[in-house]
Amino acid sequence: MNKRTSPLTSVIMIPVACLVGLPLYYILVNTFKTQQEMATAPLALPQQLFFDNYQYVFENVTLLRSFSNTLFLTVVSILVMLFIGSTAAYGMILRASRFNRWFGLVLMLGFIIPFQATLIPLYRFLVDIGLIDTLTGLVLLYSAGSIFCYFLIQGYMKTLPFEIIEAAKVDGASVFQIYWRIVLPLIRPILVTVGVFQTMWIWNDFITPNVFLSSPEKKTLVLEVYRAVGEFTTNWPSFMTLSVIVLIPMVIFFVLTQRHIVSGLLAGGVKG
Amino acid sequence: MATNTLPLLETGRRSIARMRRLRSSGRWREMTANQVFLIPIAVVFIVLYIVPLVQTFYYSLTDFTGYSLDVNFVGAANYRTIFTDASMLAGLSFTLLFTVGTTLLITALAIPLAVILNRRFFGQNFVRSVFFFPAIPSIAILGLVWAYILSPLGTGVLNSVLEALFSIGPYPWLSNGTLAQLSVIVVGVWGSLGWHAVLYLAYLQSIPADYYEAATIDGASRRQQFFHITMPLLTPAIIISQFLLVTGGLKVFDLPFTLTSGGPGYSTYTITQSIIISGVAQGRYGQASALAVVFTIAVGLLAVLQLTVSRRLERRIT
Question: Least CB-packed of A29, B76, B180, B188 within 10 Å?
Answer without folding.
Answer: B76
